[in-house]
Amino acid sequence: MTARPYTKHFIPLESNPEIFTQFIHALGVSPVLRFEDVLALDEPSLLPHPALALILTYPTPIDYEERRAAEEAAAQKEERSRDRQDVDVVWFKQTINNACGFYAILHAISNGEGRHFIRPNSVLANLLEGCQTLAPEECAERLEASQEIERIYSQAARMGESEISENPEDEVDFHFVCFVKDGSGREILELDGDRMGPVRRGQLAASDEDLLGETGRRIMKQYFKSEGDGGNVAFNLMALIAVES
């Protein structure tokens, strides 16, 4: 990915459901929630349910920044009469380098049904409460300034088995994005801190349709095709699910 002007840098997270799960629990999310790998979209009976959010990881092609900028411009033109923030959604602007996995996790647990599993007075609950009346830029600054969240993140980032650079300013060639339902439960949104806000990806047939239902699987397959450009690209998909304690 093209280098961007960041003032803060993190070591990237490994795309690992166990690490992601331990991370959200340390932030103050109930043990009822956990992440699981989604291994095959063509086998509905084997998919984890109910999926409250999805996190997709994929390698970024050389023209990734240019393609994203073009899509952002097209979305702005199409939605001139629609406020991109008119949906009941928590969205964080990414201001920390190499932390797209971190922002994807925050988006997954701060929206939809996931937010109901955040424990009161926890690190995450206090962050979200403090951001309620702030603009995205101000909320990003609040997140960036949290030493407690940085400490918890650093512990999670060093749990992986993948080889990573000890220099957090080194660029990585993969990206994380999150998919959740909007406040009405009728539309799937893509949440990416590197964009300008939430992106509408498709209408659900009903509010009780799972994110790994027919609509969600179709959107994921379209994403695989567009980002993979027809090649053999190593995508990784995780679902946030609620399980009995």
Textual characterization of the structure:
- It catalyses: Thiol-dependent hydrolysis of ester, thioester, amide, peptide and isopeptide bonds formed by the C-terminal Gly of ubiquitin (a 76-residue protein attached to proteins as an intracellular targeting signal).
- Residues 9-242 form the UCH catalytic domain.
- The record marks 94 as: Transition state stabilizer.
- The protein is α+β, with helices and mostly antiparallel strands and 245 residues long.
- It has one domain: Ubiquitin C-terminal Hydrolase UCH-l3.
- Helix content is 33%, strand content 18%.
- Strands 2-8-3-5-6-7 form a 6-stranded antiparallel beta sheet, with helices on both faces. Strands 1-4 form a two-stranded parallel ribbon.
- The protein starts with 7 loop residues before the first strand and ends with a strand.
How are the SSEs placed, and which strands pair?
Elements: E1 8-9, H1 17-27, E2 33-37, E3 51-59, H2 64-78, E4 96-97, H3 100-110, H4 123-131, H5 136-145, H6 147-157, E5 174-181, E6 187-191, E7 199-203, H7 214-228, E8 236-242
Parallel strand pairs: 1-4
Antiparallel strand pairs: 2-8, 3-5, 3-8, 5-6, 6-7
How would a crystallographer describe the biggest sheet?
A: 6 strands, antiparallel
The CATH superfamily name is Peptidase C12, ubiquitin carboxyl-terminal hydrolase
Describe the global form: globular
- What's the CATH C level? Alpha Beta
Q: Cα-atom Rg, whole angstroms? A: 17 Å
Topology, number of strands:
8
Kindly report the CATH topology: Ubiquitin C-terminal Hydrolase UCH-l3
How large is the share of residues in beta strands? 15-25%
Q: Numbering strands along the chain, what is their spatial order in the largest sheet?
A: 2-8-3-5-6-7
Structural class: alpha+beta
| Average pLDDT metric | 84
**Total helical segments:** 7
CATH architecture: 3-Layer(aba) Sandwich
Percent helix: 25-40%
Low-confidence stretches: none
